[in-house]
Amino acid sequence: MGIAFAGIIISWIAPGFTGKYTKHHPIIFSHLLERLTALIIVIFGETIVGIADYFTATSFSIQSILIFTTVAALFFTYIIEFDHLINEHQRHETGNLMIYLHYFILFGLSLITVVMKFIDDAEAHPRFAVTCMYLGFALFYIGLTIR
Question: Which of 42, 77, 108, 147 has the most CB atoms around it within 10 Å of its CB?
Fold first, then answer.
């Protein structure tokens, strides 16, 4: 477990040390953006799978529609920001900022996904669930705002 934890920490910190190298050998910004967007779309897919329990014949309700609308709104907000409003053809960009802000988006979406799985659970404390939901939204929108 210690090796896995060290690998995760190194992978989070390592891009910060590549700025000097990438200034001399610039990345293709549009390719980096495409890869990061693909990762986030996969996470949105996991979120959709996570909320599937709300769409059965016995559990379908207005809450199901609101949960789906929330996930769809997050997805469209992300796509508008990173597919339509960002300049893909930036020159002399290291891409480090883009990598690090996607950590906020990734962790925010993951937290929202987990909360949506147990928000209806009787054993989950409602205040904890709502706090985690707001924290997930905050992380997601911090990542979008930093852009």
Answer: 108
Rounded-to-5 percentages of helix, strand, coil across the chain: 80, 0, 20
**Number of domains present in the structure of the chain:** 1
Q: Say whether pLDDT at 130 is over 80.
A: yes
Q: Tell me the average pLDDT across 8-29.
A: 77
7, 70 in Cβ contact below 8 A?
A: no
Domain that holds residue 75: 2-146
pTM: 0.83
DSSP string, 53-65: GGGSTTT-SHHHH
How far, in Å, CA of 6 to CA of 41, rounded? 27
Integer Cα distance of 142 and 41 in angstroms: 18
